[in-house]
Amino acid sequence: MTATDTHTGDRPSLLLAPAPPSGPLPRLGWALADGWTVARRDLLHWARGPWELGFGLLFPVLMVLMFVYLLGGSMSVPGGGDYTEYLMPGMFAMVMVFGLGETVTAVSTDANRGITDRFRSMPMASSAVVVGRCLADMIRSTLTLIVLIGFGLVVGWQWHGPFDRALLGFGLLLLFRFALVWIGIYVGLVVRGQGGMAVIQTLEFPFGFLSNAFVATATMPVWLGTVADWNPLSSTVAAARELFGGPGVIGEGWIAQNALLMAVVWPLLLVAVFAPLSVRRYRGLGG
């Protein structure tokens, strides 16, 4: 709680910050309101520096162009099918992975500049900073996914079947991103400076490419294909391909044959682990 001395004539008075609300629902509303305030701060930063957001949107478009027009001619889908339709669900998921570095950088930068400590000194919900970061990143990820979906339609990708199944596929992609946001927040709070970004950059590409995002795991050596099948990214990509009605190869293992289930279970497990760790780490800063 903070206090500020003011004077009315010769008599000092004390202005106290309002006490946190009591009860679970009022406290939840308080935390969400404070979280949205923090998220708005990040959105205003993007509005003042649109080139950064524009580059973030351009990068996945360039990736699609490279794979579709430079490498696509030499790619084949086991069992047949158009490679562009096989590729795009994997590219949607990879965009979710690449956003992890942006989360780590933003969280680490705020911590290093003392902005996080300033937030901690204010009468706000202790979870507001991490919740606000999560909200802002999900808004950005949704915008990026919409842009890439539009570009995918331009280069020949489309979903087949009811729109509600396609919408569920997009929802699973954003659920996966939601889990990665909490991982990024935790890493950004634990590993300060360039260290956190170096860790993520080192892991992003192996994590992304050691999956079924670009090629079927059946084409890999058995041991490597098994590792790729157990990559949470592979479950999300396989589930999205199934919901979009595009070409895909279902593996022989249990994890591959239950991709739709695991596309929900993996992100929920990650959130259950890293969301509490992130909040606890934020509360312990400076302690």
UniProtKB/TrEMBL annotation:
<dbReference type="InterPro" id="IPR051784">
    <property type="entry name" value="Nod_factor_ABC_transporter"/>
</dbReference>
<dbReference type="InterPro" id="IPR000412">
    <property type="entry name" value="ABC_2_transport"/>
</dbReference>
<dbReference type="InterPro" id="IPR013525">
    <property type="entry name" value="ABC2_TM"/>
</dbReference>
<feature type="transmembrane region" description="Helical">
    <location>
        <begin position="50"/>
        <end position="71"/>
    </location>
</feature>
<comment type="similarity">
    <text>Belongs to the ABC-2 integral membrane protein family.</text>
</comment>
<feature type="region of interest" description="Disordered">
    <location>
        <begin position="1"/>
        <end position="20"/>
    </location>
</feature>
<dbReference type="InterPro" id="IPR047817">
    <property type="entry name" value="ABC2_TM_bact-type"/>
</dbReference>
<keyword id="KW-0472">Membrane</keyword>
<dbReference type="Pfam" id="PF01061">
    <property type="entry name" value="ABC2_membrane"/>
</dbReference>
<keyword id="KW-0046">Antibiotic resistance</keyword>
<keyword id="KW-0812">Transmembrane</keyword>
<feature type="transmembrane region" description="Helical">
    <location>
        <begin position="259"/>
        <end position="279"/>
    </location>
</feature>
<keyword id="KW-1003">Cell membrane</keyword>
<feature type="domain" description="ABC transmembrane type-2">
    <location>
        <begin position="51"/>
        <end position="285"/>
    </location>
</feature>
<feature type="transmembrane region" description="Helical">
    <location>
        <begin position="203"/>
        <end position="224"/>
    </location>
</feature>
<feature type="transmembrane region" description="Helical">
    <location>
        <begin position="91"/>
        <end position="112"/>
    </location>
</feature>
<protein>
    <recommendedName>
        <fullName>Transport permease protein</fullName>
    </recommendedName>
</protein>
<keyword id="KW-0813">Transport</keyword>
<keyword id="KW-1133">Transmembrane helix</keyword>
<feature type="transmembrane region" description="Helical">
    <location>
        <begin position="166"/>
        <end position="191"/>
    </location>
</feature>
<feature type="transmembrane region" description="Helical">
    <location>
        <begin position="142"/>
        <end position="160"/>
    </location>
</feature>
